[in-house]
Design brief:
By secondary structure, the chain is an all-alpha fold. The chain is flat, with a radius of gyration of 18 Å. Helices cover 88% and strands 0% of the residues.
């Protein structure tokens, strides 16, 4: 049953990663064409760069889970769960930090509750990362 579950995880995440990669590629082509046509402001360039970093982190995280599921299906050695928890926590902190930076690049026209919400989400992920790291070091 565990191999079947891992197979569904493997297939689902593989499909999601391909679709996410496609969506990011479409967004990049659209942004490039728009930049060539109208030009690109500094803040728009920063948001585009942050989107690329965000996408790379999401794809890296999903590839870690895909690789682990594939190793379990084949019966190979899998990554330690403590390592995966740390990697997941670190990726979530980085992704939420990127999203917070995106919010802050247009702070003049962003509502206060959006900024506070993004900061709160980032803080929760940051505290979680510290807690996971401390728990893993204690064991």
């Amino acid at each position: 049953m565990k191999k079947l579950t891992n197979l569904f995880v493997l297939l689902g995440l593989s499909l999601a990663t391909v679709l996410f990669g496609y969506a990011i590629a479409v967004e990049l082509v659209h942004a490039t064409l728009e930049a060539l046509h109208k030009g690109l402001s500094e803040s728009e360039a920063l948001v585009l760069l942050l989107t690329i970093i965000d996408a790379a982190l999401v794809i890296d995280l999903s590839s870690l889970v895909i690789g682990n599921a594939a190793a379990e299906i084949k019966g190979d050695a899998v990554k330690d769960s403590a390592y995966i928890k740390e990697k997941l926590s670190f990726s979530l902190v980085t992704i939420s930090g990127v999203n917070l930076l995106k919010v802050l690049t247009d702070i003049a026209s962003t509502e206060v509750h959006v900024v506070v919400g993004a900061a709160a989400i980032h803080l929760v992920f940051l505290v979680t990362l510290v807690a996971v790291k401390r728990l893993n070091n204690a064991h």
